[in-house]
């Protein structure tokens, strides 16, 4: 597994492998259920993560969006869009998490 995954996530997957594999299959089916391309899907999921103020989900979806071809500017815009809906503190927190991911990926 990639080194950036939280220990609790890895531990859960190891403890409940059948559940983890079923969840993975569901995630693939949901992603494939509509007309959105992978990049757009990842940007939408990033927006949902920002709205939820979910640190791990923001980090994960920043990585996945960039890997799917999103630019840093596009990722930043998705985070910035949270400002008027989710609020300043949540947006700044998500922006910080994004910056930490980008810094780690570049090093």
UniProtKB/TrEMBL annotation:
Which InterPro entries does this chain map to?
AhpD-like (IPR029032), CMD-like (IPR003779)
* Pfam families linked: CMD (PF02627)
Q: Where is the Carboxymuconolactone decarboxylase-like domain?
A: 17-100
> By what name is this protein known?
Carboxymuconolactone decarboxylase family protein
């Amino acid at each position: 597994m990639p080194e950036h995954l939280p220990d609790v996530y890895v531990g859960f997957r190891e403890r409940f492998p059948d559940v983890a594999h079923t969840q993975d299959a569901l995630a693939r089916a949901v992603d494939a259920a509509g007309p959105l391309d992978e990049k757009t899907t990842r940007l939408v999921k990033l927006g949902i993560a920002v709205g939820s103020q979910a640190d791990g989900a923001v980090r994960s979806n920043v990585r996945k969006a960039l890997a799917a071809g999103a630019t840093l500017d596009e990722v930043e815009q998705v985070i910035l869009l949270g400002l008027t809906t989710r609020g300043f503190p949540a947006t700044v927190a998500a922006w910080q998490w994004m910056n930490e991911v980008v810094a780690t990926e570049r090093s």
